[in-house]
Amino acid sequence: MIQNPILRGFCPDPSIIRVGEDYYIATSTFEWWPGIHLFHSKDLKHWEQLPSPITRRSQADMIGNPTSGGIWAPCLSYSDGIFYIVYTDVKTKKGRFYNNHNYLIQSNAIDGEWSEPIYLNSTGFDPSLFHDTDGRKYLVNMRNGFKGILLQEYDSKEQKLVGEIKNIFYGTSYGYTEGPHLYHIGEWYYLITAEGGTGCGHCV
């Protein structure tokens, strides 16, 4: 039997994927080095820690980042033999104002060397990379000020965001819309977000 939590200790903002018979989780360490931890399991019960994808300062310079700032919500994904992680580096957070920047790193092997970061945008935190069935890729993230969920295409060859930025969801009356993840299942697209803040009003 699998019992929660499947990872014990300091493992905030987990992102999980399955590749073949293997499960992988990425978690944040906020402003503490290395910023991102990776874990591997075959059965969701027994986990081993893998080398961090962040191994050098050029990938995540967190000097001067505030307490509970640094790297937020690393989103791990896999497509066509490549592992991707998109993450936010939070430099300032005062009230509803955040100075944050979103980046992408990638690797051909989960435990191999990861690329230098590719700058994506600074429009909001909690980025997620969506791989559509037609091969196109899209970045979704919350809009600064909790003003909705933004979507923009990512060109993996040019390694940059391209095309129009669209606000695809403005949220509900609960507010604080964040943490978007987009899925294409059958004929439908599904957007899952968090709302209500991170306290007792938290909801999905």
Describe this entry's structure for a reader.
- A hairpin with a 2-residue loop joins strand 5 (70-79) and strand 6 (82-94).
- The protein is built from no helices and 14 strands.
- It has strands at residues 15-19, 22-28, 36-41, 47-50, 70-79, 82-94, 97-107, 118-121, 128-131, 137-142, 149-155, 160-169, 178-185, 188-194.
- It is mainly β and 204 residues long.
- The chain has a single domain (14-194), classed as Tachylectin-2, Chain A (5 Propeller), CATH 2.115.10.
- GO terms for molecular function: hydrolase activity, hydrolyzing O-glycosyl compounds.
- Keywords: Glycosidase, Hydrolase.
- It comes from Lachnoclostridium phytofermentans.
- The record marks 126 as: Important for catalytic activity, responsible for pKa modulation of the active site Glu and correct orientation of both the proton donor and substrate.
Main attributes?
single chain; 204 residues; mainly beta; Tachylectin-2, Chain A; four-stranded antiparallel beta sheet; 14 strands; 50% strand; Glycoside hydrolase family 43 protein; hydrolase activity, hydrolyzing O-glycosyl compounds; Glycosyl_Hydrlase_43; Glyco_hydro_beta-prop_sf; hydrolase
Compact description:
This is Glycoside hydrolase family 43 protein. This protein has 204 residues and is mainly beta.
